[in-house]
């Protein structure tokens, strides 16, 4: 803590670099990734389930010991004709944070049986809980009682089908969920556990109005959230699987954002949701709500939520599954040919919750605690402005030692008079970790300002020389936006700039 206080007393560029360096340290893998390929036998169905498991370990490798501790489990169902390895971004991000990820490889043929796949997800969720008490298992005393079932596309629909076959699950999550046979929409009507659904605005494979939103409406969970990522496609929730991408091409749709951007924005929602529900982390729930609101204000997502209170992690029941470990190749089960259910009528989502969950109302009795004073906004007659809003100004998007660096914003107010009490946000996004000006901390912060008529300049970081030995980095995002003082509506246009730096002098 003393180091951070000392840093904030130094130059602005040190603050900027320290944010990034701190994040690199904080995001360093706490755990290495162990991997196990195994086969498990469901005696009730006489069915073999080949499974890939990724788990926290002291050293990376195959079949290495699990590190000390008990960890929540996420069982994940793949999409149609998509292999488990196309979801490597999930285990590479979540396992180091203390999760066990489980991927059944069943129903990867061209005529998958959706119900059997859902039962596979449920079986694994139950059986892995039993491993915790099996002293012959690699996972003996390493399984936390809380678990999630999750899936993408077909696997997203199947995760709702799984709900009727297990009572050990704390939360359900899906990515671009597809309607299934039997109906995942109908199955959703029996789900009471907290549920997160993440969708893509450019999904023409399983359109939102026909697939995900009817499921969301059917859910009876007392805490449910559905998010649409702007520019995201169906296939980029996996790693651009060729079969899936060909389906998008032939359907005439494509993503408007890069693969790594879609993965990052998915994880920005997924990890705090998991941390809140599977680890009972109340600050993670606050982070999840903040990411929803800042994403909405930044134009990168829309969402609808129905949560009366922050979700409380349910106490799972004791599983009753009977299973026999089996490392053999799964037996072939005749596949059931699926028939699509009738398309439900198109539904119009509400892009913003009826009750804002991120509201900061100034307290007249409170003592301000901002790290820097309210900026002086200087009106100037030029250059002319053409649209209400805010624009970021940096001298470049790539910096080297010796280059001049500064951040300022230009505001434009065409109303003809000053607009009072607008909240000005400037947010530094370092690989998903958000730092808020003027304090440059991870706590949501902003400055309330009266925006003069016409064109104005607000200094954010004064001009300075980019330092030596700052390393190299790219893909750092900077956002600026104006909102009303209750943080519920954007005022005018917002702006975003992506920048980076290298260790080579210009």
What is the CATH domain class of the largest domain? Answer: Alpha Beta
Oligomeric state of this protein: single chain
Structural class: alpha/beta
User: What's the CATH H-level homologous superfamily of the largest domain?
Assistant: Alpha/Beta hydrolase fold, catalytic domain
Radius of gyration: 25 Å
Our measurement of the CA-to-CA distance between the termini, rounded to an integer number of angstroms, reads: 35 Å
- SS element count, helices: 10
| Whole-number count of domains | 2
Q: Flag low-confidence runs.
A: 1-12, 21-29, 320-382
Let me know the number of strands: 21
Instruction: Let me know the largest β-sheet.
Output: 11 strands, mixed
Q: What portion of the residues fall into strands of 2 or more residues?
A: 25-35%
| Helicity range | 10-25%
Apparent shape = globular
CATH architecture of the largest domain: 3-Layer(aba) Sandwich
Mean pLDDT: 82
CATH domain topology of the largest domain: Rossmann fold
Describe the protein:
By secondary structure, this protein is of the alpha/beta class. The relative contact order is 0.11. Helix 4 packs across helix 5 and helix 9 packs antiparallel against helix 10. The N terminus is likely disordered. Strand 1 and strand 2 form a beta hairpin. It has 2 domains: 295 residues, 3-Layer(aba) Sandwich (Rossmann fold); 124 residues, Immunoglobulin-like. The chain has 10 helices and 21 strands. The strands form 3 sheets. Strands 1, 2, 3, 4, 5, 6, 7, 8, 9, 10 and 11 form an 11-stranded mixed β-sheet that branches. Strands 14, 16, 17, 18, 20 and 21 form a 6-stranded mixed β-sheet that branches. The two termini are 35 Å apart.
